[in-house]
Every structure is written in C-alpha cells, then in structure tokens.
Amino acid sequence: MSAVPAPYAYPRGAEMEGSHATGWWGMVLLIVTEASLFACLLFSYFYLRATVPAWPPVGIDKPDLTLPLPMTAILLLSSVAYWWGERGVRDDRIGQLELGLGISFLLGASFLTLQAIEYSHKTFAPQTNAYGSLFFTITGLHGSHVLVGLIMNAVVQVRTWLGHFTARRHLAIQNVGLYWHFVDAVWLFVFASLYLSPHLL
Amino acid sequence: MLDPHGAQASHIADVWWGMLLVGGIIWAGVMGLLGLALVRGRWRGDGWQLADDYRHLPRAGLALIVAGGVALPIIVLLTLSFVGSRVLAAQVAPGEAPATTIEVTGHQFWWEVQYPAQGILTANEVHVPVGQAVRVTLRSVDVIHSFWVPQLAGKTDLIPGKTNQMWLRADAPGVYRGQCAEYCGLQHAHMAFLVIADPPDQFAAWVAAQQRPATQPTDPALQQGAQVFARQGCITCHAIRYGAGDTGGKVGPDLTHLASRGTIAAGTLDNNRGSLGGWIMNSQAIKPGNHMPPMPMDGESLQALLTYLESLQ
Amino acid sequence: MATVAERPERAITDERLVRLWETRPGLLGKLGTVDHKEIGIRYIITAFAFFLLAGIEALLMRVQLAVPENTFLSPDAYNAFFTMHGTTMVFLFATPIQSGIANYVVPLLTGSRDMAFPRLNQFSYWVFVLAGLFMYASFPLGQVPAGGWFNYVPLTSATYSPGPGIDFWGLGLIFLTISTTAGAINFIVSIFKLRAPGMTINRMPLFLWNMVVTSFMVIFALPALTAANVLLELDRKFGMHFYDPTGGGSPLLWQHLFWIFGHPDVYIIFLPAIGMVSTVVPVFARRPIIGYTAIALATVATGVIGFGVWVHHMFATGLAPLSLAFFGVASFMITIPTAVQIFAWLATILHGRPVWRTPFLYVLAFFFDFIIGGISGVMFGVVPFDWQVTDTYFVVAHFHYVLIGGAVFPIFAGLHYWLPKMTGRMIDERLGWLAFGLIFGGFNLTFFPMHITGLLGMPRRYYTYPPNMGWDGLNLLETIGAFILALGVLVFMWSVLHSLLHGEPAGDNPWHASTLEWQTTSPPPPYNFRSIPTVHSRDPGWELQYSDETAQYGDETLSRARETLGTTLHDARPEELWAMPEDSGWPLVLALALAVTFVGLLGGFLWLAALGLAAVLVATVGWLWPTQMKVVPL
Q1: Are the beta carbons of C336 and B70 separated by less than 8 Å?
Q2: Nearest Cβ partner for B184 among C155, C375, C390
Q3: Cα(A117)–Cα(A114) distance, integer angstroms
Q4: For residue B212, with 0-12 CB atoms within 10 Å meaning exposed, 13-18 middle and 19 or more buried, which class applies?
Q5: Side-by-side strand order, sheet with B174-180
Q6: What is the rounded radius of gyration, in angstroms, for the C-alpha atoms of chain C?
Q7: Torsion angle, alpha carbons of C195, C201, C203, C204, to 10
Q8: Long-range contacts formed by C45-51: CB under 8 A, 24+ apart
Q9: Which of A53, B20, B73, C522 would give a disulfide with C424, using CB separation of 3.0 to 4.6 Å?
Q10: Which residues of chain C neighbour A56 with C-beta distances below 8 Å?
C-alpha cells in the first residue's frame, strides 16, 4: 500500500475566523435571512404607498428628522466603537475590547431611548391607518433587533471579563459584531425609506 | 370551458385544444424514449454489473440533453409565448365599444347587480344582449370573490378596495351559469348566478321591466303580504323599491323584481313558491352559514308573503 | 482486506469512536441526542404521521364529494379539512420528511461524522414537532383554521374569521419557520465546510447540490411568509391595517407576500425530491449520471428563476397586462432547467443497464406523472387559459401531479433506497411492487379526472356541487381512486414493518451504489466512518478509490476526541478540526420556551409570552456558553 500519510495536524476550529469558521457561516446566513425579512417589510411599505396619492396620508405630517438624524449618527458610532473593540482583541488588547464593547452598548441603548421618545411624540398610532401600522411595525422590529444586539453585547462582555477571548480565539466577538453592523445597515435602509424618502420623493 | 358560447371562451378553447395536442405529443415522445431505454436495458442482461461504457460520457447523451432539454423547450415555449401574448391582447380589449356597463358587487354569498346607465338594481342574475360586448366592473364589500362564467369568458376577482373590469360577449342566446371562483367562506359553494343572453328586443323588454318601480299593492291579499314583509323584519335587510326614495335595507339582495329571476339564494334553488317558502322559513338549513337568519312564521303569514313576493315581476 | 483479528488496532479505534460518539443512555440521550441519524429518523416518522393525518383529511373530503349535494360533512368541517390538508401536506410533511431524509444522508454523503451544528439539528426537530402540535391543537379546541392553505385576506381577517382558528395557522407557521430556517443554515454549512477531503464542489453527489440550493431558497423565501403572517397577526390581534383597504391597506399585499414565499416553496419541496431522482437513477441505470454539470447548473437556475414567477398565482386579480405578460413568460422559462434535468436522467438510463427494483419503479412513476403536471403547468402560462382554469379542479389536478408525481414519488423512491441503510434490512420487493401498483394506480385514478372536471367548470374548495353538471361520475371515480391510493400507503407501511421484523439483512451496499454512505455498515455506527475518507472522483464506490486501507491509526481516524474534519469550500482541502457537541438538553428547552411564547401570543396572555421570551434568552445563553470538548485519553 502507499506510504503512511502524516497524521492530521490541523488547527482547532474554534481558532478559525471568517469564512473558515462554521459559526461565521451560521451568523452570516442568519443575517441574510433577517435581511430578507426586512426587505419584505420595506416592499410592503412601498407597495402600500404606491396605492395612495398622498404619503403620509392626509392628517399626518411628514416625518420629523430632529431625533432620527442623531439616532442614525449614534448607531453608526456604535458600530465604529464595536469595530475598534474588535481590533483590540485581535491585537490582544483586552482592555480595548472591553471599552469598545461598553461604548457600543451605551450608544445602542441611547438609540433605543431616543426612539422611545420619538414614538411618544407621534400623533398617530399603529391602529390609525396603514401608514401608522407600517411605521411602528418596521421601526419596532428594527428596534427589537437592536435590543437583541444589546443582549448579545452584554453576554460577550461578561465572557470578556471571564477571560474567554484571546487574539487567537474570539469568533463570538466577530459574530456579534457582524450582527451589530447588520442592524446598523438595516437602520440606514429604514431611515432612508421611512424618514427621508417622503421628503424627497 | 369546453362548451364555449362567447368570444373569449371560444378563443381560449381553441388554444386549449392546440396545447393539449402539442403537450400530448411531447409527453408521448418522452414516454417513448423512456420505454426505449427500459426495453434496451433488458437485453443487456440482469444483475448489478455496471454498464459497459460507464467510464465514458457518451456524446449522444449530451446531445440529447441539449436537444430535448434546451432546444425543444425553447421552440415550444417561444411559440406558446407568441400565441399567448396574442390571445391575451385580444382578451383584454373587446375591439368594439361595449353596449352597456354592468356593475357587479360581491357579497358573502350573493351577487349585487346594477346597470347604472339604465337605473337597474337586481341580484344574482345578469342579462346581456346577444352578440354585443358588455363591460362588467367588479367590486366587493367584504372578502375576495371571483366572477366566472366558463362558457363565456375567464374569471376575474372581486377585491375589496379595488375595482376590476372585464368584458363579456355572448354569441348565442341562452342561459349561462356563473359561479364564485374564489373561496369566500362557508357558502362559497352556493354562490352562483345566471347570465342570460337575450336577442335585442327581449333584452330591451327586460330592461324596461327592471326599470319599472314596484307598484303599491291594492289587492288586499297582496297588501297583507306587504305587511308581513315589514312586520317580520324582512324589510331590515331587503329593499322593495316603490319609487323615489328606497324602502328597505341593503344588506341582502334587492327584491323589487324577485319574481322575474330564475333562481333564488344565488343560484342554489329554482325560483318557485315551494323553494321560496322553504328558504324564508329556514335558509340556514339549505345554505348553512349564509347571512340570512331563519324567519319562522305562521302558515297564513307565509302564504300571504309568498303571494306578494310572486307579484314582484 | 485485513480482518479485525489481524488488525487489533482497528477494534480499539472502533471502541474509542463508539465511546466518543454514541448517544448517552437514559433520558438525556433519548431527548438530547445530537446524532443526525437518530434525528433524521425521528423527522421521517413524525412527518409521515402528519402525512397520514393529511391523507385522512383528504379521504374525508373525497367521501363528501363522492356524490353531489352530499351531507357527510358540514361546510365548516369541509373547509377546515381542505385548509389543514394543504397546510399539513406542504408544511408538516413535504419539507420535513425531506429534511429528515437529508439529515440522515447528508453527513454520510459528505463523508463526515455529523452535521455542522448538531444541537441546532436537534432543535429544528423539536420545533417542528411542537409547531405541528400547536397547529393541530386547534382540532380538540374546535377552532380549526378554515382559510385555505394560502389563507387569503380579508376572509382571514378578524372580521370574517373571528376566533383563534387563523391564529393557530399564522402563529404556528411563524413558529415552524424557525425550524425550517435553522435546518437550511445547517445544511448549507455542513455541505460547504464538512465535505471529505478531495470531494471538490464538482465531485459532490448531486443530492448535495439540491440541498444547498433548496436551503438558500429557504433562507430567502421563508421571511416573506413570516412577514405576511406577522402583519396578519398584527391586523387580527392589534387592529392594524396592513391588509384592510378601509385603512389604507391592501388585500393584494397578502397575496404578493404569500406567493413571493409560496412559489419558491414549491421548488423547496421539488428540488430535494429530484435530488433523490439524481441519486437513484445512476445506481439503477448502473452508470454515472450523464450531464452532472448540466443538472447542477439547472438546479441553481431553478432556484433563482423560482423567485421571479410568483405573480402567476395572481393572474385573475386584475393586474396590468404588462405585468401578466412578463410573469407568464418568466413562468415559461422555468421549464427549461427542469427539461434539461429530465433529459439528463433519460440519457443516463438510455446509456445504462436498468435494474428493476422498487426505488426505480417510483422514479419511472415520477417521469410518467410529473411530466403531465409540468405540461399542464406550462399551459397556465397562457394567461387567458389561466383565467379559465385557475381556482378549478384543473389546477388541483396540476399541482397534485407535480407534487405527488414530482415530489412524493421521488420521496418514496428515496425511502425505499435508503431505508435499508437506516434499518439494515431490505424491504420485500413483492410488497414494494404491490404498494407501488396501488399507489400509482390510485393516484392517477384520483387526479386525472380532475383535469376533466375542472375543464367542465367545477371550481375548487366547493364543499358540495349540484347534480347534472357532468361532474358526478368523475367525482365518484376520484373518491374510489383516493381509497385505492390510501390502501397502497397502508401496504407500504406494512412492507416497512415487515422489513423490520423479517427483512433480509441489507449488508453495507445492497444496491451496489457508488456514494460514500454505502461504504459503511447498515446501519452506520454512531461515528459514521472509522476514518474520514479521501475522495478522488464523483463515484468513489465504483472507482474503488476509497479504501479504508489508507486509514492509519491515530488522528486520521479522529479517535482522540469528539471532532470532525473541516475542509475548504471549493477544493475540500482539509483545514481544521471541529469539536462536536455532545448530547444536550438545551435545544429542547429552547424549543419549549418558544412554544410557551407562542401559546402566550395565541391566547393573548402577554405575561406568558414575556415569560417565554425570558426562558428563550436563558436557554440561548446556556446553549451557547462554551463547554469542554469530549476527549478519550490515549
């Protein structure tokens, strides 16, 4: 028979990153399916909008951008903070990771707080008409995704304090980061569709 | 659909027979190939040995894939696309100005029919002049229904919040049965209607009769029936129009010309005294889940009511 | 080949592997097993049970329709049965049974020890069971959904369908979707990352191509159903106006969202099934498939084009002619990739040596009946023809021909093909042929006349019909056919039971097939293969390139720890070792927590839903919390 091949001496899967890691694929596919969900909701938004001449319907003002604009900035910054934290763990600077995660969390929480305030200023309810239903459902679903992201952030923060992550082994940080950036990206689409386009189109 | 009496239905039936022929030939051809493959195989012996040329990829096999899987479908489908778009274009526009417009509104489980230009309001029955196109607009007050007279044309849905349009032309006089063709609830199966194609003078006569308001009854027998109509509460849902100003509700079909219609309960029963009596006393036993409650009453009232209703030509 | 006695190291390796991989005894093992084979079998049995329920619903409907103006079923019973028949067949049978077969077979086909996410696999199964129970709980509560399997609004709004019936349907499907999506993610990653070394992307069995494409379709299409159902439940339970025209909503929005999911869903059902055809044909034609690349590309093309044709379910809704024309042509185009596959299979049989066994019979039946369904489907692309026959028995005939001919027959082929691997016993050929004859004959007798009744004007979803329309005799024939079909299913069930009790032992490779699952025992050991095989061609069994002589003792057998080999996507070069989880109770706990949440939402008990969500959080964190890899010291 052929010569004895060398024993398999391969890296541990837990130290793999990106598309080499099964967990990364799992998160990416989850993101794709959630993105598809948001796409369906935005389709619904534009479909119902196309069936009526006036948008927002008579009696509702065009969306106020006073809060949403800073909300957008805050969310984008939270992604930057997370990215910076992730840079830290790659360079084995756990302190930077902890700080990045923490800042990202606070910014994310601020986003939700501002959203709650924005909701309280609205003159319409989800039950008022389709516009109201769409507005609260789409922003609400996005907000719940932000909330889930904050929970994920809190969990990896705890794991960071417990010393689970090193420069070689931090797939969970990468995956949570992917999810958080996704939530950020979805907000940009939601913002453009629900808040900006009534002013522009 | 296979017994067309209208322009659109005829056209579609012709296309159907053509597609059946071509489809049948294709299916038979593929089955023939399969049969050939199976029969040939038997001659190669039994057992599990691999085919002689199993290591090679026969060019003939790849050629079959291209010929049968790509070329044949493309040819057939291009032809069908061409034919289909021609048929669609013809079906969408009647090619003549419609003789009149009929407004149909779907309800659970009956059809409200109006001829706005002629001021006609009836239910579950449509009259059209033979050989002339009519436009039909379709609306619904509750759920989605579908207006389908297979001998005349394809179906179009009645969707709440949307007004759809179709056109019809019957090419021979006769009575054509229509049915609701979109599941609309418990009695979707009993929501039929009649489309009656009349020669021009009969159509004109029908229009004239439908335009006449009901006459206030002078015969005491009829008056008694009219009182039953009001007293038993029929008037809450049904209208009988005597002239300016409607009398009665609009929840159920307008009954001003009830006796002129061939069927009742949306094509469920023939329109005769016995059926009508049974329907009034307990429509739920005949069409459970329809929106008319049982209206039990004593025999004398019922007979008076029936006599009155039979007078509403 | 050296025997175990001559190679005692082999016995030691086997023993180590068994210790590493066997399911734990007791309750944790029973409920918490992560073995894809056990999970696959459970999926198949559960899905088959739903198949029987849906079949009974169909038989009851056929009894009602056997004669005109029948009073066997009330209209609400009939309407509930046709709703649940369609819903159960599509959501609780067709996709899950194929997930089950794939669950069993995919790691064996890839030459791996398990799926990429074994606990997620177990979770998918539990959610499927719980979601099915959730929907069927509507029966004892007397609140069965009756909106039809595609549930059009406004009929299914709170106004016209008061009560919780529709909520069982809508929430039940949102719940079920979690299972289907998790399964899809699992299949994609398993097929991408865990293939045996040397199993490059163009050497992998075609069934894996079908599962990857199907899984991507699930990822993209299922959210449309979830969106539709979420908006429906918001309308129904919270008074919103997505579908309500008086509030600015549109009933057509439901139809678009549903069919944007619904049309891809028929391919989600069809593609794994024809993956089984691509599996069975080469084995029973005794030669490698002709047109491998064509079939793989055709599968991808079907998956893509499948997203562009949904409006053909809405041709009668009054859309603009341009839209109708576009979607009609797109619907024609999807025929072409399927035709390519049909001729590839035909070419393979033509250049092969057909062997007549039961799995092959079902493939022949597939050709016979699916092509009829495909041709009738093409006819619908001529829009005015669709206007005549949509919503009639003609369309009922069409979709039963493509679903039963195109999916159920291949599933039966796959079951007959793989059951010997799963049970280690052959199914008696005579019983197989008898069941086949009854099923094939019964099916055609039931559904062929429906083409005719549809053309004669009989609409679908009618609980009864008037006499003297020309429908009476045909309906009676259809009812008789349905009972013959049912008898065939019973004979099939008997044949499986008989094989378990008295069946001939199957041995490793009773069909003399070429793929990796047949290179191990029947049933396989818990660890599937003693060593991860290296593959050099598409048909390793026939090329005899696979031999476990190349396996050495040590890490190639991966017998030190509970792990499997990860490889690169394209070229399947070995890359890393993945620690695989042991039996775990977390997936069941998470599934139960989700069930509690959905029950809370169904009943309007928001405190219960909140409690459920809290449990979901705890279970998710518990599941994902890192644990130690199982090791057996040397």
Answers
A1: yes
A2: C155
A3: 5
A4: exposed
A5: B125-129, B192-198, B174-180, B145-148, B156-158
A6: 25
A7: 50
A8: C46/C96, C46/C100, C46/C125, C46/C128, C46/C129, C46/C132, C47/C92, C47/C93, C47/C96, C47/C97, C47/C99, C47/C100, C47/C128, C48/C93, C48/C97, C50/C88, C50/C92, C50/C93, C50/C96, C50/C132, C51/C88, C51/C89, C51/C93, C51/C97
A9: C522
A10: none
- Cis preceding-peptide flag for B109 (omega within 30 of 0): yes
Q: Decide if the complex's ipTM is over 0.85.
A: yes
Chain C CB contacts of B179 below 8 Å? 457, 459
pLDDT for the residue C547: 46
Contacts of C544 by beta carbon, 8 Å cutoff, 6+ apart: none
pLDDT tier at B246 (50, 70, 90 boundaries)?
A: low
pLDDT band, very low/low/confident/very high, at B151 (cuts 50, 70, 90): very high
B95 in contact with chain C, both atoms CB, cutoff 8 A: no
3-state secondary structure of C479: helix
Q: Minimal Cα distance from C624: which residue of A? A: A172
- DSSP one-letter code for C425: B
- Asked if B189 lies within 8 A of C465 by C-beta distance, the reply is yes
User: For residues C461 and C392, what is the distance between their CA atoms, to the nearest angstrom?
Assistant: 8
* Order of all β-strands in the sheet with B120-123: B120-123, B110-115, B100-107, B134-140, B164-168
The pLDDT assigned to B47 comes to 81
Q: Which residue of C has its CA nearest to B85?
A: C325
The whole-model pTM stands at 0.96
- Find chain C residues with C-beta within 8 A of B72's C-beta: 339
- Contacting chains of A (3 CB pairs or more, <8 Å) are C
In whole angstroms, give the CA distance from residue A24 to residue A170.
Answer: 11
Is A46 within 8 Å of chain C by CB? Answer: no
**Residue A51: its chain C contacts at CB < 8 A?**
248, 250
Which residues of C are less than 8 Å from B185 in CB distance? 155, 160
Kindly determine whether residue A155 and residue C621, on different chains, have CB atoms separated by under 8 Å.
yes
Pick from A107, A104, A105, A82: nearest CA to A170: A82
Q: Which chains touch B (3 or more CB pairs under 8 A)?
A: C
For chain C, residues with pLDDT lower than 70 are 1-7, 544-556, 634
- Range scoring the smallest mean pLDDT among A32-46, A149-163, C426-440, C537-551: C537-551
- Residue B45 neighbours by CB distance under 10 Å: 8
B288 upstream amide cis, omega within 30 of 0 = no
Residue C356: both structure tokens together: 């007549």
Average pLDDT score, chain B: 94
The pLDDT, as a whole number, for residue C554 is: 34
Two tokens, residue C517 = 């699952």
Nearest Cα neighbor of C39 from C208, C191, C186, C195 is: C186
B72 close to C (CB below 8 A): yes
